[in-house]
Amino acid sequence: MATTIAMTATNNTKREQADRVWRVMLDEAMRKGFYGTAAIEVSLNDGTIQHIRRRVEQFEK
Question: DSSP letter at 2?
Fold first, then answer.
């Protein structure tokens, strides 16, 4: 079976990293008193994950 870009070691590692970042970010945001947005952005180059960015914006009430 041919290896696809999605199945490469780099993408598998980065995908696991993105999953961890997302779970931690949600745990931090899903608490009483948090008002805002949470986002994860994945940059790819030719189908390979290059960068993972996490963004949290909190509104002051």
Answer: P
Helix, strand and coil in the chain, % to nearest 5:
40, 35, 25
| Burial of 31 (C-beta count, 10 Å sphere; 0-12/13-18/19+) | exposed
| Torsional class of 2: left (φ above 0), alpha (ψ -120 to 50), beta (otherwise) | beta
CB distance 51 to 42 below 8 Å: yes
For the chain, 61 residues long, give each residue's pLDDT as a single digit of tens. Answer: 556 777 899 999 999 999 999 999 999 999 999 999 999 999 999 999 999 999 999 998 8
Residue 21 phi, psi (nearest 5)? -60, -45
Q: What is the pLDDT of residue 2?
A: 58
